[in-house]
Amino acid sequence: MLYISTRGDASRKHFCEILLEGLAPDGGLYLPETYPQVDAATLESWRGLPYASLAFEILSLYIDDIPAADLRALCEKTYTEEVFGSKAIVPLRKLEDASTGSARTDVYLEGLSNGPTLAFKDMAMQLLGNLFEYELARRGEELNILGATSGDTGSAAEYAMRGKKGVRVFMTSPQGRMSPFQQAQMFSLQDANIHNLALEGVFDDCQDIVKAVSNDLAFKRKYKIGTVNSINWARLLAQVVYYFAGYLQATAAGSSGKVSFTVPSGNFGNVCAGHVARMMGLPIEKLVVATNENDVLDEFFRTGVYRVRGSADTHETSSPSMDISKASNFERFVFDLLGRDAARVADLFGAQLSKQGRFDLSGDAAFQSAARRYGFVSGKSTHADRLQTIRDTYARFDLMIDTHTADGLKVARAHLTPKVPMIVLETALPVKFAATIEEALGRLPPRPAKFEGMEDLPKRVTLLPADVALVKAYIAKHVD
Hints:
It contains 21 helices and 15 strands. It has helices at residues 15-21, 40-45, 51-59, 68-78, 81-84, 122-139, 152-161, 180-187, 203-215, 217-222, 233-250, 269-280, 296-303, 330-337, 342-356, 365-368, 370-374, 383-397, 403-412, 434-441, 468-479, and strands at 3-5, 30-32, 92-100, 103-110, 143-148, 167-174, 194-200, 225-226, 259-264, 284-291, 305-307, 358-360, 376-380, 422-425, 462-465. Strand 5, helix 7 (152-161) and strand 6 form a beta-alpha-beta unit. It is globular, with a radius of gyration of 21 Å.
């Protein structure tokens, strides 16, 4: 299996090369040359496998430069009941039978937030940490990870990488834009290989800096810069697994029926993994993109216009991990949407976005058939919607959900299809957004004992302007 850049770089690379590289040299994102296909018989043969075994089966279709025995051991080391809190790893909970015309449709919640940092990012980041440590030891090298977080990526990466041999983490985040719990999770870590950089700006400023550093090939090579954001293919690949796991739990043995997934999304990484699963042959009818008030993705799927917002127009919301106005993974989908036309993708995400801050595919035949060909539809949720969905879910099912999951559940109900199960991907546990839960329910969510008093712990964080040169200088100082 070889990988190519969405912007046409001529090189073809194996998995472990792009694992440590992040962005392609031409600024594009890596994708496999072709998506391996999973037929109905193979899918059925995976039913009942432990999650670690399912992960091995899927990852081995994409990874041919790690010995099978080693890859299996990495999966088994990562996906344990001890780390993720249940034998199923991603348990499925049926919420309701919703009326859809004359039929009923099952609505499920897939639990992805039982890992060390209580967010779905742990599902991939725990594997990524083990893959990094394995490959760096094999090469006798070190890696300096530069990341950007709007809330959950940072803590998931830091908890996965803390203490890992040969790895340092430099994590940027928007100053004051995360919840107090999210900030405390990151900033209270005292590990010497973890560096938190709070930047004066919004998440998109942080993400732009990560890309700018990654595009400085001389700096990147000198300081061995890698990424953990979902621009790293390995992280997105790990997320593909739980789409298969959700499908297998929601369907009966021998079923040939489809399911749909609703995914709260700002950066398009989580739902892009669903796109990959669908391209592999997983029977997905709809991929529903749920946004908050920062609705750049919803606007595209409704109109064909992809319009980036500036910092001043990026709303600060009660689902802050989706306060994103540049969806970095969106380029991967557009590459497939446009028939893998790398030159056109390079123009859209390079020249057009740089000059105009937008591009328009509304008149393109590929966009006009996108929902039919790729299953994408979308919707938007507001703060008032969030509160109402949290209240409704708690009243009807005695279940607290976080603000992002509430966005997903609200949008999901507008896109139900008779007799097609709808699986909503859980994003985080409600304790991470306690203030909004208290606003909705008049009570605070439960907090795991290990996180008691976390906000009062000493903080280890450096405040910087959102400036590429200053971030580079900080990295250089703490690597040399």
